[in-house]
C-alpha cells in the first residue's frame, strides 16, 4: 500500500516507464527523510541566526555594513 | 492355217474337198466372216468402238466424248483464263501465297514452325513462358546475362536475407552480404572489407533518457548501463507546487549515511559553506532538486548538473560534482546557487539515480521547455 504517493521508474535499458505506488519501505524512508531534512534545516537556520546575531552586535559596536561584511563575508 | 481358224472358228474348204463342194464351202466361210464382222457395222463420224460386255466381239459405236472437260470454274484465288478445251487454262491470283513471294499472312496458326530468322517491325507475340523465351510480365530466371546500364526499379537481391543487411563488392564483380551490426556499432574496415564494430571511446556524450516530470512525487532512472565512463545529469525548469517541499538525489536507492558533500553557495549577496558528512541523500541542507521552489520562470526555478565519475567501478567510492541554483520562495535567503563536491562511499556500481522527495507534500513539475536528461560519456 503506497498511500497514493506515486513514483515513476524509467528503465534506461528498455525505455519502459512504470508508475507505481511507493512501497511500505519507501513510505517509512520518507518519514525518516523528513526528520533528516528538518535537522539539516535547523542547523542551517541556526547558523544563519548566529550570523545575523553577530552582525547585529557588530553593528551595535559601531561597525558599518561594509566592515561587518569584511569580517563575516 | 488351222481349219477352222484359231480365233474366230471360221470353217474353210479343206484340201480334200471336192470342187463341186467349194461354192458351198465358201458360202459357209463367207457367212461366218460376215456374221463375225457384223458388230463393226454402223456408227458415224467421230464415233469409237466400245465394249458392251465381256463377250467376244460385243462392240458398239459410241461418241468419242469419254473424259472430256466441258468447262472449268475457278475457286477462291484461282482465275480461269480459258474455260473450255481442248486445253483449258487457269491461274492463281494475288491472294494466294506462293513459296517465294512476299505476302502478308493474317490469323494463321503454325504448328511447330521452324523460323530461321525474324525481321519484325510490329508487335511480336511470343509464348507466355518457355525455357528459352522471356516474357515482359512473366517471372523468369535469367542465367549468365550481361546487362548494360540497366535501370532497376525496386530490385530484390537474394544475397540480402535479413533486415538491415548491406552488400559490398568483392573485387571480382560479385557481391557479398554484411549482416546488420549491434546497436551503437559503427561501420568500419577490417582486413580490407567493411564490418561493424563497437566504436572506441571517444569522449562523446550519449543521451540515455529524457524525463519531463509533471506533478511528480519522485522518479528514478533505473537499469543504467555500465558501458559509459561517466554519467551526467542535467535539468532545468524544476518548479515545486508549494514553498514547503524539497527534492534530493539518491544513488542506487541507497538511504544509508554514505553521502559526504561539501558545498559552497551564494545566498543573496553572501557566500557560505555547508558540510554534510554522512548524509542519507546528496545534500539534505540544500537538496539538489531544490527546496521551496515555488516561483515560476527559468530565473527562479531549479536548474543544474551533476557529474557522476567512474560510476561503474566496483573498487572505489564514487566521486560526484555539480552545481544547481534556485529561488527559495520561503525564506530570507531567496536566491541560491550551490557548487558541490560529494563522495558516495559505496563500492557497488551505480545503476540507478533517484530524485526523491525529502520533505513536504508538494509535487515537482517542469516549466515549459524544461527537461531532466541523463547522459553517458564514453
Main features:
heterodimer, A: 73 residues, alpha+beta, 2 helices, 62% helix, B: 378 residues, mainly beta, 8-stranded antiparallel sheet, 3-stranded antiparallel sheet, 19 strands, rod-shaped
SSE map:
The complex is a heterodimer of chains A (73) and B (378).
Chain A: E1 6-11, E2 17-21, H1 24-60, H2 65-72
Antiparallel strand pairs in A: 1-2
Helix pairs in contact in A: 1-2
Chain B: H1 22-37, E1 48-51, E2 59-62, E3 78-82, E4 89-92, E5 166-169, E6 175-178, E7 186-190, E8 193-197, E9 205-211, E10 218-222, E11 230-240, E12 246-251, E13 259-267, E14 270-279, E15 302-309, E16 318-327, E17 335-344, E18 353-359, E19 364-377
Antiparallel strand pairs in B: 1-2, 3-4, 5-6, 7-8, 9-19, 10-18, 11-15, 11-19, 12-18, 13-14, 13-17, 15-16, 16-17
Strand order within the widest beta sheet of chain A: 1-2
Straight-line N-to-C gap of chain B: 146 Å
Q: Whole-number radius of gyration of chain A?
A: 23 Å
Number of strands of chain A: 2
Strand order of the largest sheet of chain B: 9-19-11-15-16-17-13-14
Q: Structural class, from secondary structure content of chain B?
A: mainly beta
**Strand share of the residues of chain A?**
15-25%
Spans where pLDDT lies below 50 across 5 or more residues of chain A: none
Q: Which percent range describes the beta-strand content of chain B?
A: 25-35%
Describe the structure.
- The complex is a heterodimer of chains A (73) and B (378).
- In chain A, 62% of the residues lie in helices and 15% in strands.
- Chain A starts with 5 loop residues before the first strand and ends with a helix.
- Among the domains of chain B are: 33 residues, no CATH class; 173 residues.
- In chain B, the strands form six sheets. An eight-stranded antiparallel sheet of chain B has the order 9-19-11-15-16-17-13-14, with no helix packed on it. Chain B has a three-stranded antiparallel sheet with strand order 10-18-12, with no helix packed on it.
- The chains are: A alpha+beta (73), B mainly beta (378).
- Chains A and B meet through strand 1 and helix 1 of A and strand 9, strand 10, strand 14 and strand 18 of B.
- Strand 1 of chain A pairs parallel with strand 10 of chain B, so a sheet runs across the interface.
Amino acid at each position: 500500500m503506497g498511500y497514493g504517493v506515486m513514483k515513476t521508474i524509467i528503465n534506461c535499458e528498455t525505455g519502459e516507464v512504470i508508475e507505481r505506488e511507493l512501497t511500505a519501505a519507501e513510505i517509512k524512508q520518507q518519514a525518516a527523510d523528513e526528520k533528516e531534512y528538518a535537522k539539516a534545516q535547523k542547523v542551517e537556520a541556526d547558523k544563519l541566526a548566529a550570523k545575523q546575531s553577530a552582525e547585529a552586535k557588530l553593528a551595535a559596536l559601531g561597525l558599518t555594513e561594509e566592515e561587518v561584511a569584511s569580517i563575516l563575508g | 492355217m488351222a481349219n477352222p481358224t484359231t480365233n474366230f472358228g471360221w470353217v474353210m474348204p479343206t484340201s480334200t474337198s471336192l470342187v463341186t463342194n467349194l461354192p458351198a464351202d465358201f458360202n459357209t466361210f463367207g457367212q461366218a466372216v460376215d456374221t463375225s464382222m457384223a458388230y463393226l457395222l454402223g456408227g458415224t463420224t467421230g464415233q469409237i468402238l466400245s465394249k458392251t460386255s465381256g463377250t467376244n466381239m460385243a462392240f458398239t459405236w459410241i461418241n468419242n466424248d469419254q473424259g472430256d472437260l466441258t468447262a472449268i470454274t475457278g475457286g477462291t484465288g484461282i482465275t480461269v483464263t480459258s474455260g473450255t478445251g481442248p486445253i483449258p487454262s487457269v491461274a492463281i491470283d494475288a491472294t494466294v501465297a506462293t513459296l517465294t513471294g512476299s505476302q502478308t499472312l493474317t490469323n494463321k496458326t503454325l504448328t511447330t514452325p521452324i523460323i530461321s530468322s525474324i525481321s519484325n517491325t510490329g508487335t511480336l507475340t511470343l509464348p507466355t513462358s518457355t525455357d528459352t523465351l522471356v516474357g515482359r510480365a512473366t517471372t523468369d530466371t535469367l542465367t549468365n546475362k550481361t546487362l548494360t546500364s540497366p535501370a532497376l526499379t525496386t530490385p530484390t537481391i537474394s544475397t540480402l536475407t535479413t533486415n538491415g543487411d548491406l552488400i559490398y563488392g568483392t573485387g571480382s564483380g560479385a557481391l557479398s552480404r554484411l549482416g546488420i551490426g549491434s546497436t551503437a556499432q559503427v561501420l568500419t574496415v577490417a582486413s580490407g572489407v567493411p564490418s561493424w564494430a563497437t566504436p572506441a571511446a571517444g569522449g562523446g556524450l550519449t543521451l540515455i533518457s529524457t524525463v519531463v516530470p509533471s506533478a511528480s512525487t519522485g522518479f528514478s532512472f533505473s537499469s543504467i548501463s555500465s558501458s559509459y565512463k561517466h554519467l551526467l545529469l542535467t535539468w532545468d525548469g524544476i518548479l515545486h507546487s508549494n514553498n514547503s517541499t524539497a527534492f534530493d538525489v539518491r544513488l542506487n536507492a541507497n538511504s544509508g549515511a554514505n553521502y559526504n558533500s561539501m558545498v559552497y553557495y551564494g545566498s543573496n549577496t553572501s557566500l557560505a559553506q555547508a558540510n554534510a558528512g554522512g548524509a542519507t541523500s546528496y545534500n539534505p541542507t540544500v537538496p539538489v532538486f531544490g527546496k521551496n521552489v515555488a516561483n515560476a520562470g527559468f530565473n527562479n526555478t531549479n536548474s543544474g548538473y551533476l557529474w557522476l565519475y567512474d560510476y561503474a567501478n566496483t573498487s572505489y567510492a564514487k566521486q560526484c560534482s555539480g552545481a544547481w541554483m534556485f529561488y527559495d520562495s520561503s525564506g530570507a535567503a531567496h536566491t541560491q546557487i550551490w557548487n558541490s563536491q560529494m563522495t558516495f562511499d559505496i563500492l557497488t556500481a551505480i545503476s540507478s539515480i533517484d530524485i526523491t522527495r525529502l520533505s513536504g507534500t508538494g509535487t515537482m513539475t517542469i516549466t515549459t521547455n524544461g527537461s531532466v536528461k541523463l547522459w553517458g560519456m564514453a
